[in-house]
Amino acid sequence: MDYRDHQVTLFTSQSQVVVDKIVETGRYTVKNEFISKKYGETSQVFLQAYGWYRQNASQIVERPADGDSAIWSFLNVNYLDYSADSKIIKLHVPIEQIVFFRMSDWNKILNLRLLGTPEEEAEYYERLKKFNVAYEGDVYTTGFYPHLKTELVRSWQKLFQYDHMIKETKNLPFDDIQGGIWEIRNSWVESFTDWGIEQ
């Protein structure tokens, strides 16, 4: 982890519209309309997962009133998603403004899956079979499995299990650690770079 002067170097991939907003207004936050537009017909599932994240991550780092959702950033530029009009933004963010977690864990939550040890997950999926749950996302999106849903949502708290340790030790336990931030401030930006240009 590149940590100095209480700041962590992070990378995020954002559209030119976002870059312009940062330059013009000095900061950028995400609105839920953006998520709806980005994910289209599947946005409802994403909004539910993002809503859970917003509620729980804001207990670790206070969320500004105008920040509907987090901005995903990474400690390694290789984890960024490429899109045609996007720029790579290199940031130096105060460590206390970041929520650290594994990308692979977040992907499980996005897919409305249990987050646990291999043994816990195997046991959970055996129970789904007993209840004849064909699509595991139904546990969260329908009202038919309240006990399973409680267990599922409780397991998601493990998303944040590495945050405190990373902030204490300044070491990363896994390569796929990412950081959720509520805003991008112009004062945090080191550079805006086109894809394909060496960082």
Automatic annotation (TrEMBL):
Q: Which domain of life is it from?
A: Bacteria
UniProt-recorded name of the protein: DUF3841 domain-containing protein
